Amino acid sequence: MIISDQELEVLINDVYEYYGFDFSSYSMASFKRRVDRLFQLDGFKSFPVFLSKIRTDPEYFKRMVEEITVNVTEMFRDPLFYKVLRTEILPVLATKPFIRIWHAGCSTGEEVFSMAIMLKEANLLHKSLLYATDISPAVLELAKKGVFPLRMIKQYSENYIASGGKEDFSRYYIANYGSAKFGEDLIERMVFSQHNLVSDRSFNEFDIILCRNVMIYFDKDLQERALELFDGSLSKLGYLALGTKETIKFSALQTKYSQLNKEKIWKKLR
Amino acid sequence: MEEAAVNNNFKVLIIGGSAGSLEVLIRILPQLTAIPFALVIVLHRKAGDDSMLEELIAAKTTIPVMEVDDKTPLVPGSICIAPSDYHLLFEKDDILSLDASEKINFSRPSIDVSFESAAEIYGSRLTAILLSGANSDGTNGAIAIKNAGGMVVIQKPESASMSYMPNSAIQNMVPDYILDVDGILDLIHNIVP
Ligand SMILES: C[S@@+](CC[C@H](N)C(=O)[O-])C[C@H]1O[C@@H](n2cnc3c(N)ncnc32)[C@H](O)[C@@H]1O
């Protein structure tokens, strides 16, 4: 390790003091690696220089948040998960007059656009609102545009088909100079805003909350707090969807939920 | 927290490998019955191969094979396998964490990531075995384990179907043992609580 435990503690404290972002309850093993990686990536020679850059340069802090959080995402990531959404969850949501969805930790938006495409195909998009939030302003700026690298589209169309998509995927975007721009009709139903799962509160009641591959970077206590936040933001019989290797099994809340088959989707019972 | 650490002072055996390592495990695992330590296996595997590896390994042993989700507790007497497409990390309080960040050494799970992280938490309670493979993943991790006071065992390159991985480690650090498969088995039998 390049940065010592003590230095890491100083950094976490300073970031909290200067910017109000609290990373103290992140999974330390992974968080340390991220900080080390950034330190090396940006060619810092000493910890004090690194720390002072973070403290004095808000633009650099923004970069730090972007780099320290893991932002990798895909459209229709884990296609079988989307298949279950499509075949088992959307038909239930369809009976509601209005559908509210929260993508917590949406990163650059691929997950939100995937959901919007499925809603559109189920003829539900017009009565849905997709709230997409993330701690990192940098990824939200990208997400809002609905523009993804064209080189990824082959993979995304394969995922789309594997998730049960029947349309020609190319009808959803316009290719231009190496990028694929997704339709305004999808973007119209989305609301993007910055929201920190560590410190911000519930802002609405939802029929389904997706928080996939976000809480793996939290320690157990913070996971529990985030789960409580989701629990307080879910309507009765609402759904909570996590990443393929995430579970609420270790949480006190699990008794209030029942899991759908083997998928990482839970239904709130009461 | 102090108390928990004292009560659960178990040892951890971590095995890392790539091409040619599964055949070694398939020879070793049926010979192990009850193990007094926690066994963690980190193999390079195809993305999205889901639970194939877990099933294969579970079929070769009577020791319980855990399904590893994020924050699964590590318990002695069981086997945990790093899932495909995630790095496997160790937290305080004997908890496993997963991480889907960039590949390291073209690999996710990466052996270096797990070895380095295990070294930090388990120090001298850790034994690592690095098996056959065709890349240099594991070398840095083996160095970290030695520095933290753990034991490092490398599969004898001549006994490995891919000698690159063990050779890379041997050229860059001094392991405690270099052993063929029978030697590795003896060593595992001699890990006492
Ligand atoms: C790996 S991405 C997940 C993207 C998408 N949900 C998926 O599964 O593909 C994790 C996201 O969580 C965000 N994140 C990390 N800490 C957060 C926090 N405290 N509050 C909200 N979002 C956070 C990161 O900025 C990052 O964009």
UniProtKB/TrEMBL annotation, chain A:
What GO molecular functions are on record for this protein? S-adenosylmethionine-dependent methyltransferase activity
Say yes or no: keyword Methyltransferase present: yes
Q: Name one GO biological process term.
A: methylation
Q: Work out whether the entry's keyword set contains Transferase.
A: yes
Record keywords, A-Z: Methyltransferase, Transferase
InterPro entries in UniProt: Bact_Chemotaxis_MeTrfase, CheR_C, CheR_MeTrfase, CheR_N, SAM-dependent_MTases_sf
Give coiled-coil spans as residue ranges: none
User: Which residue ranges does the record assign to the CheR-type methyltransferase domain?
Assistant: 1-248
Recorded superkingdom: Bacteria
- In Swiss-Prot or TrEMBL terms, this protein is called Chemotaxis protein methyltransferase CheR
Question: Upper taxonomic classification of the species?
Answer: Bacteria, Pseudomonadati, Bacteroidota, Flavobacteriia, Flavobacteriales
TrEMBL record, chain B:
Please list the residues that make up the active site. S18, H44, D137
Domain named CheB-type methylesterase: residues: 6-193
The catalytic activity of this protein is classed by the Enzyme Commission as 3.1.1.61
Top-level EC class as recorded in UniProt:
hydrolase
GO cellular component terms, semicolon-separated: cytoplasm
Annotated InterPro entries: CheB_C (IPR035909), Sig_transdc_resp-reg_Me-estase (IPR000673)
Which reaction is recorded as catalysed by this protein? [protein]-L-glutamate 5-O-methyl ester + H2O = L-glutamyl-[protein] + methanol + H(+)
Q: Which GO terms describe its molecular function?
A: phosphorelay response regulator activity; protein-glutamate methylesterase activity
The record's annotation in Pfam families points to:
CheB_methylest (PF01339)
GO aspect biological process, one term: chemotaxis
According to UniProt, the name of this protein is protein-glutamate methylesterase
